[in-house]
Every structure is written in structure tokens, then in C-alpha cells.
Amino acid sequence: MKHSDTDLLWLSSLRFLWKHPWHFALSILGVALGVSVVVSIDLSNNSAKKAFSLSSEAVTGKTTHQIKGAAETLDEEVYRKIRIDEKVRKSAPVIEGYGRIEGMNRTFQIMGVDPIAEGPFRNFASQQAGIELSSFISGANTGIIAKSVAQELGASVGDRLTVSVGGRAYKLRLIGTINAKNDRSQRALENLLVVDISTAQRLFNMEGQLSRIDLILPEKNTESIVTDLKSTLAGGATVNRSDSRSETVAQMTRAFELNLEALSMLALLVGMFLIYNTMTFSVVQRRQLIGRLRALGVTKKEILTVVLKEAALIGLIGTVIGIISGYFLAQVLLKLVTQSINDLYFVLSVQELSIGLYPLAKAIFLGMGATLIASFWPAREASEAKVSTVLKRSSSESKLAGRLWYFAGGGLIAGLVGVGILMIPNGGIAAGYASLLLLIVGFSLMIPLMVVGMAKLFRPILGRVNGLIGKMSVRGVVTELSRTSVAIAALVVAVGATVGVGVMVDSFRATIVSWLEAQLQADVYVQPPSAVSRKADAELEPRLVDLLKETEGVANSHTVRSVDVSTNYGTDNLVAINQGASAQKTYQLKKAEPDFWQQYTADNILMVSEVYAYRNNVALGDSIFIQTDRGKAGFQVQAINFDYASDIGTVTISREIYNRYFDDRAISGLALYADEGLEVDQLVERLRDRAEGLQDVFIRSNRGLREASIEIFERTFTVTTVLRMLAIVVAFIGILSALMALQLERAKEHAVLRANGMTPGQLWNYVITQTGAMGVMAGILSVPLGILMAYILVYVINLRSFGWTLQLMISPGLLLQAIGLAIVAALLAGIYPSLKMAQSNPADALRNE
Amino acid sequence: MKVKAHIQLKKLTKSYQEGSKNRLVLDELEISIREGEMIVLLGRSGSGKSTLLNLISGIDKPDSGEVLVGGTDLTKMDEKNRTLFRRKNIGFVFQSFNLISTLTAHENVLLPLKLKGDTDKETLGKADQFLEEVGLGDRFDSYPDLLSGGEQQRVAIARALASEPMLVLADEPTGNLDYETGRSILEILNELVRKNGRTMIIATHDREICKIADRVVELQGGKLQEVEDTTEVI
Fold first, then answer.
1. How does the average pLDDT of chain A come out, rounded?
2. How far is the C-alpha of B68 from the C-alpha of B55, rounded, in Å?
3. What is the DSSP pairing of strand B90-93 with strand B167-171?
4. Phi, psi at residue A682, to the nearest 5°?
5. How far is CA A467 from CA A470, A479, A761, in A?
6. Domain named ABC transporter: which ranges (chain B) (predicted)?
7. Residue A53 covered by a domain
8. pLDDT above 50 (res A393)
9. CA-to-CA distance for A431 and A423, rounded, in angstroms?
10. Which residue among A52, A108, A262, A329 is least crowded, i.e. fewest CB within 10 A of its CB?
11. Residue B3: band (very low, low, confident or very high) from pLDDT cuts 50, 70, 90
């Protein structure tokens, strides 16, 4: 076809869109919302990753290898040995931890270094960078921060900063600032406080200890040098490549990011349904127009091309708007994503969005691709229709009516294939999402049949309530099934998605609440503030522990120690408990050897959380080799417990066994039992008074800790909730657009009714009853689909992503909310067309085109 | 290159499935039409007139038989080639006008010309000329919904003739118009078709239209019967 031929067809298409501005705008909005959600999630995830890699690069510098201790620390004697005895000149001691600087609302990474040894490693911390050595290692608490941070803080060199670490406050003199060479370094350094080793040892209560030793090993003979070093290292210290840490961290957040991406894709899928719906409408509306064009000699391919071009235009505008709004949405989501990462995994501070090409390219590909895919079938249907029948309107309805059972059969087959995929053992997350998609498609194909069935039920009811108009309204849904069923299907999927995600979050919440009930057996819990909310990585001062234990009214107590250790599975969180027999009540075991609790204080046995067992494919009877201060030691897994505090997993052993293998005597948390008859709140007050002036710690009642834990849980799910809200907005707009388009398109039918004597009020009643009936149908049908989606999200996707066993929790409120959403939107959708018709002259609509 | 207009339908059969019953609409129908001839096809509603026009234009395919238009057998062609043939050789005038609502009167006339691939200057000229000839020289930029029924049908006539088809098919062209407007439309159609030497088939149940015909045929029981005395049917 020559270029000039298409112009008139294309012009006709553009005018059609222009003449239906609501329809056009809502189609664009459908694409824009889907793209916006995907872009915002991608941008915020990428920004978080970028910030992590920048700060990681900054603190790692040119380090090639690192020596780490078995537990959190390493004796500083090891450094002397390495540097002097082993003559590894390019070695530098490092102490790493987190704290807050008063006046700054974010967590800083505190890095203790030796500026003399730093030269080859990190420019900003070395003597060459201009650190005044005499002040830096003066013995007093001193430190340096980036110049931009000092400006933000309003501090000058010589000022005193208050730094809070693990609940203890320290004064520190600012003896210099770091001048970043470029924007990249600037961003990497803006959360860093550099102090000398002895200051760091004081801040972190690590006298004589280091976090690690950084090494730059020559490329030649690296392996042999590492082997030599390993042989000289005692007490379970290890040498590892410096990038292995980043890999571990990246792995930690993989499932978290994947799930956010999947949720954003779900929003896009809902968006796709909306596009499909609006494009189908746009084609159905033009059936006769297309028939006329075909009669005049326009080929199928030309029709297909022009409809797809229209879709591409909608896709393009929607994608551009989606990218722009996605950028703004990402600013909000970035805070939430960073907060979740801080609560769950590690300290991360992200100050700004980093815009990569990849998220933009992905958005364009998805926005355009989704629109074209969703539009392909309506476009194909438009082009394939027989010219002789397309000129008669009723033909498409009779065609669909005759195919109801075929559609339902096809839906059943798609659903069964979806279930089949679910049955594949170790199917993976992708297979989970594939089956979810098939079940959604399968369910949608069954909707026309279900609508016909529901209409039979609704007709007598509405007839009784609303007389003839009620009956006519329901009948109208069935007579125009090719349009109404597509609209209802789109609404069902959109509302179903919100039900699915809502039930998933509720299930998580319910599971965690019931788990906390069992887990929190003591009356009062004492914890130091921690940089990562769900991780007990700070220590309680021994003096404080003794003081609190001896407080009047404390009947009993137990302690917890949490450290990161090296095992044959990587770096794992090891928890040591001294709870004795009462631990049996606290820990809910999924599986265990029969006499686990009798043996756990005496033997080399341990308990792993179900997440740990799932991630590392560990079963009862397997061994875990832990790097201890006594070297590598083997422990047998004899129990698997439920634990929802961490999605990385924990390994739990008894404190007696821990003390046998580790020199660490620190305590991360203390649980206290009140004397019988004593009010817990009274004891909390008493304990707080005793702790005053010693260490700033959280002393919370059982109830208080439960509430605080739930609050953290809620916070980590804020992103999900925001995404769900967005899906609701998409669903709402979908309902609105589909039903409004349907009613606007019926202007002629309404005019006939008006011409036959229907008053504007009766017409209003007719339209509202019909959209309301469709809303109720969509709301009801979204419930089973939503529950089905929730089932897969909870039992398949979550299990495959994290390994958690959750209880499916379906709250009636949530289901009613979904039905309500569908009805309210449906009613709102009816207002504009009925008002428009009531105000307009029916003669205009009755005129022939 | 112009194909000699000569239409021949040989043993044309078409039936439809209606529920469990098979309804025979055209039964081994035969007819030959000369170039430039104007045929009126009479028949009651549902007798198969539209079906016959759909088969002649290649919109639909017969169950059996041949449709020869200018020596080309449409039944041997696939859907795409039938569409391309229709685009080049057949003009349509429908009962319900069937104008493209999103194009102006002028653009509606222009459309088949552009589809044929005529050059812009030539095309514009022809469209202008035919719109003038049907008396709508002052309504070039009007959209169909702003035109009266008679005006819309005049645009449809201009559209059918502007592309210089060898055959014009009109399906109840006056069916949606009042008596007076209908007569004037017929006059325009008759004048323009004859002036341009086109072959034309008008399907109608309005026996008065027979006045303008060279030959009248009636579709009854799936077969065509020649009506010798047209005064008898009027």
C-alpha cells in the first residue's frame, strides 16, 4: 500500500480517537499507570543498588582480599602478624560499624582506619589526603566527614559532634573534611564517618579487636599467598576476596527485589487488561465503520495495521506519561524501599534517584509491547470479520453467545495447564508467575458464561426491586455480551489483583502476629538500638545486664547473642540462646529429632529456621560447618523452626555450646520474667530507672515489643501496600473507563428509549442499575479469582522466594472492600453518560450518521 | 488498463445455515450483463438481493458457480485479491449510505481513489468534480452527521463513481429517503452512470425504479426471471 493511501485511513482513526476523548484519555491512563508503577519500582531498586555499590566501592577501595574473624571480630594481634611477620605491607586494619550523628536524620557508616596504612587503599582516609596525623591519632575521639555533610550539619573543623552508637553517646571532634573529587565520590562518601582505629574501638567497645584486615595482594601468586596466609591464621580467621561480600549482600535482597518487580508487573498486567478492554471497545464501536471500509476495498492487513498504529500511538503517549509520573512516584517509593532494606537487611542511605538507561528502555519496551500485545487480538478480530456480517450489528452477539461454552472450555484448559505448572516440583518463581498468569487468563475466559448465569439470578431480583427497568438493565448486560463481558473480565482481574495482594499481606500479618505470640514468652525485653531493625547486631553492656537481672521483681532471665559467622553456606546469622528448658515453649518447631531439646545444651547440634533450610536446601541430619574461634566445627541440624523475623534465615545453638567455640561473651538481647503478681508495666518502669545513664536501650514489655515488631512489619510492607493502592487506582479507572465507554456507546439505544417515552429520571435509573449490576457481578467474581491469586502468592510464590510457611488469612472486610470498590466505581461510571443523555436531545442521537 | 465490462454469473448457488436447517438463497442462478447496461434487480425483502450483490462484488463467496466480472472469475480468487479487485473495479451505493463518519464529504469521495493509488492531483480533481456534479460543491468539509439523508446519499454516489469503476452496485439506494429525495437521487445516479458509461445493478423492492432500467430481472425462489414488460410491474 502506498503512503498516501494510509493517510486517509490514519486520519479517520485519529479523528475517531479525537471524537471519543474520554475513551482515548482513559486508554492512555491505563498504559501510563502500568508503566509508571514498573518504572518507579525499577528506579528505586536501581537507585538502592547503585547507592550500595557506590558506598561499597568507597569503603572497599582498592582492596583485593579481606581477613575476617570467625565471629564479628578479629584480634588486632593478627594484623601485627600479617604486616610484620608475614611482611604483607599492603595491609590495613579496619573497624566497621554504624551510628548516628546528632542533627542528621540518617545512619552513618563509621569506619575506623589507620591513616598510615591507608595510602594504597582509600585516598580519602590516607595521610596523603591531608589528614592531620597528629590530631587524628591523638588518642582523643576525632573523626572526619565529607565536606558536603559538614555543610549540611553546619559544622566546622574543630567543632564537636555527638555520635550515638548502640545506644551510647560519644563526643567526637571534627578534625577535617573530605573533599570529593566528583559527584560520584560525593554520593559515596555522604554517609561515611572516618575515625582512627582506637576511636572506633572505643565507640564499638572493641578494645584489642578489629572488624577485618584489608589486603592488596599482587595478581601473580595470589593463590599461594592466600594459602600461606591461611596457614598462619589461627582461631578460625579466614581470607576471602573482597567482592564476595557484595555478592552476599546482592543475594540477600534478590528475592525482595524480585517480588517488588513481580508486583509491579502485576500492575502492568492489570494495565494490559485495561488496554485490551479499551481497544476491544474501540474496535467493537467501529464494527460498522470497519465493514464499510472493507466493502470499499480496504484489505484486512490495512485494517490490522491502522488499528495497531492507533494502539502504538496510545502506547507511546501512555509510556511517556508513565515514565514521567514513574520518576515522581519513584521519589516516594525510594524512601520506602530504602526503609525496608534498612529494616530487613543492611544499612543503606540513598539520597537521590539514579536514572539508568535500562529502566527507561524496559519501560518503553513494556509500555509499547504490552499495548501492542493487548491490542493485537481486537485488531485481528476487526480485520478478520466478514464484511457481509459486520455490516449487521447483531451478528457478533449471536457469535459470542454460541461460543460461550467453548470459551469456558478454553478457560478450563488454560487453568488446568496453570495448575499443572504449579505441580512441577521445584518449579521456581518464574513458573509460579506463569501459572498465575494462566489461571488469570483461564478465569477470564470463563467470565462470559458466568455472567450469563449470574444474569439469570439477578433478573428476577432486580425485577422485584426495580420493576421493568431492573429487568431490562440485566437483560442489556447479556444482549451486549461481547462488550459487557470484556469490561467485566477487565474489572474482575483488576479488583482480583487487589484482593490477591491484600490477602497475601493479611496472611503475612496474621502469621507473624501468631508467631510473635508464641515467640515472646518473657515479660520484658531489653535490646540496644540497632542499625538494622530486624537484626540484633549491637551489644548490651555487661554491667547493665547484671544490674537489670538483679532488679527487684525479676524472677528469671535469659539472653540472646546474635552474630554473623562464616559457614559452608556463606555468611550466616548465628543466634546463641541460654534459655534452658523454657526454650521449648518459645520455639515452634516445624520438624525435629525426637530428643532435640534434651540434647541441645550438651551436643554439637543446632536448629535452623525454615527459611534457612529452604534457601540452603538443608534437612534434618545434615551438617553445617561453622568457622569458630577454635577453627572449623561441624554441627548437625536436628530441628527446623518457624521464624518470620528474617528472610535470610538464622542458625540457633545453645549459649553453652557457643561459649565452647567462641571467645565472645557479649549479649545482644535480654529477656526478663516478672515475679508472679507484679505488673509488667511497673517492672518496665523500674528497669528503665535502673538503666538511666548507663546505656540508651529499649526496655519494652512483651506487648510493647510485639507492637514494635508489627510496626516494623507494617513498614516493610508499605511498598507492597502502596503498590496495592496503585493497583486499586488502576482497577478503579478500568471500571470507570470500561463502563463509561459502554454506556456512551449506547447513546442511540438510550435515545430510542427516550423517544419511546422514558423520562430522564427513568433513563438515569436504567443506566445506573445496569452499571451497578455489572459492578456487583465484577465484584463477586473478583473474590474467587483474588483468593486463587492469594493462594498462589502465599503458598507458591512466597514459599519459592523466601521459604516461609504462611497461614492463608482471608478477612471478610477485604472481600467486601473489593466488591464495594467495583460497585462504587460502576455507579460513578454511570453518572456521566446518564447525565449526558438526560440533558441531550434524543433526536440528535437518533440521526443517521 | 481497462477491463471490458461484461458480467456473467454461472450456476451460482448460495445457502445459509439457519439453526439446523439449510436455507437455499440462490439456486444455480444465471445471468449475463453487457457493458454499460443498467439492470434493476427486483425482489421482496429476504429474497437474496443483497446476497447476490455481495457475491458479485466479491464480499462473499458462493457455494458453487462462477462470478465473472470483466472476464475475471472472482470465485477463483482469495479474499485479499477479491478485496483488491473490488477496490479497483466496483463502486458501492448502500441503503444506509455507509459513509465514513470520521471523514469529511470530500475525504469520503477521495478515499476509494486514494486506495486505488491514484496520484494526488488527479484524485483531488476527480473528487471535486463528482462532488460538484452531485450538487454538493459547497459541502466539501462537512462531516456526514451534519448532512441530510439525501445529501449523504449524494456523497455516496460521488464516492461510488469517482474511482471510475467498471461496475456500480446499488443496494436499495432510495430505501432510506423520502419520495422526492429518492426521485432526485435516482435522477442523479442515472445521469451520472450513463454519462460515464458505467455498468450498474440496482437491487430494490421499489418497482418505480424500473423506469430507468435497460433491463429488469426479478429474484424469486433463488433464480432470476427476466421481466419483459416493465409497465406491468410499475
1. 81
2. 10
3. parallel
4. -65, -45
5. 5, 19, 14
6. 7-234
7. yes
8. no
9. 10
10. A262
11. very low
Considering only alpha carbons, which residue of chain B is nearest residue A294?
Answer: B83
Mean pLDDT of B43-49: 87
| Spatial distance between the Cα atoms of A253 and A712, rounded to a whole number of angstroms | 17
Confidence of residue A846 (pLDDT cuts 50, 70, 90): low
Q: Which residues of A touch B111 (CB under 8 A)?
A: 8, 296
- Looking at residue A446, its amino acid is M
Q: Which domain holds residue A361?
A: 1-62+250-392
Instruction: Tell me the per-residue pLDDT of B11-22, one tens digit each, with 9 for 90 and over.
Output: 999 998 776 788
Of A257, A354, A285, A270, give the one whose Cα is nearest residue A55: A354
- CB within 8 Å of chain A, chain B residues 65-124: 79-80, 83-84, 86-88, 90, 92, 94, 96-103, 107, 110-112, 114-117, 120
Q: What domains can you pick out in chain B, each with its CATH number?
A: 13-227 (3.40.50.300)
Among A696, A723, A749, residue at a domain's last position: A696
Residue of A2, A296, A849 lying closest to B112 (CB–CB): A296
Opening angle at CA B55, ends B53 and B59, nearest 5: 95
Same domain, A20 and A104: no
d(CA A434, CA A420): 11
Query: Can you give the pLDDT at residue A389?
Result: 60
A317/A368 Cα distance (integer angstroms): 9
Distance between CA A214 and CA A818 in Å, rounded? 56
Write the single-letter amino acid at A393: R
* Nearest CA-CA partner of A13 in A272, A277, A276, A279: A279
Q: Which of A653, A554, A659 is nearest to A608 (CA)?
A: A653
**A294 close contact with B: CB closer than 8 A:** yes
CA distances from A286 to A280, A289, A293, A384 (A): 10, 5, 10, 14
Both A728 and A641 in one domain: the answer is: no
Q: No. of H helices and E strands in chain A? A: 30, 21
Q: Within a domain: residue A412? A: no
Q: What does the angle CA B79 – CA B84 – CA B87 come to, to the nearest 5 degrees?
A: 125
Per-residue pLDDT, averaged over A783-797, amounts to 88
Written as nine digits, the cell of B52 is 447476490
Distance from CA of B60 to the nearest CA of A (A): 7
The pLDDT of residue B59:
83
Give the Cα separation of A653 and A577 in Å (integer).
6
Could you tell me if A230 and A254 lie in one domain?
A: no
To probe the interface with A, which of B54, B60, B98, B159 has the most A CB atoms within 10 Å?
Answer: B98
Q: Which residues contact A184 (CB under 8 A, 6 or more apart)?
A: A54
Give me Rg for the CA atoms of chain A.
Answer: 33
**Are A465 and A323 in a shared domain?**
no
